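Box 3.1 A note on notation
Throughout this textbook, protein chains are presented in two layers. The first layer is the amino acid sequence; the second is a token string describing backbone geometry. Keep the layers aligned when reading.
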Amino acid sequence: MDKMVELGALKINKALYDFIKDEALPHSKITVEHFWNAFEHTLQTLAPKNLSLLQTRDLIQAKLDAWYLSHKGQKFSLEEQKVFLKEIGYLVDEVEDFVINP
């Protein structure tokens, strides 16, 4: 089994840890400690949102699978398909142009 480095709640493959420490960070102003602390914080912050998005994807996929199975062998209707895809949130209406300010 590959060797692991444990930092906080993270278990990092030693080869990845060494790459970040020895090759990715030396010419930056980022310390190894800061990098891994920030990475851990990012994972902890985004993991719940990512899980929610994956669950949404699974739900939409199940609806797609069921719809296409129930329409197997039927004549294809682009309009009917668009209505269905909008109903399940796969397609959304276009919005006006917008700008995101940092």
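The first helix runs from residue 14 to 24. The chain has a mean pLDDT of 95.
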